[in-house]
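Entry 12.
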Amino acid sequence: MKLASRFWLISLLTYLLTSCAETKSFQCQKIYQIANEVTKETQSLTKSGQEVDKKTWLLAADKIEQAADEMKNLKINDNDLKNYKTLFAQVYLDYATATREIIKVWETKDRQAAKSAQEKVRKAGQLEREVGEKINTYCGDR
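Predicted 3D structure (tokens):
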């Protein structure tokens, strides 16, 4: 009887531990939530058609950087999703860095720095699209 009750207890604990683990879908949603929030916030800060001042751009860079930190700190178990969240965090850091460089270019009128910042934005955008497509495909596979 003692052995049977231990087996039952181990089985119960194993079931509880595995049923409490986050699903792939839930982990995907956590990543999507941060990505959607950063898009929404930066769009609201930099409303189309309105002139945006340097202070607003700095605030947008700060928000993007915060999103990078949130993304990095997400608790994700799935190895593929860990990679995607790391890549998204890098994209956000690259956007924040490029935004701050663009602000400096406005002040200094340095053409070389402008080209460099523009290239960083282009590369970050390309990586964001690639990672977005990959995670959408991966998370769509259920």
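Annotation: The radius of gyration is 21 Å. The chain has one domain: 22-140.
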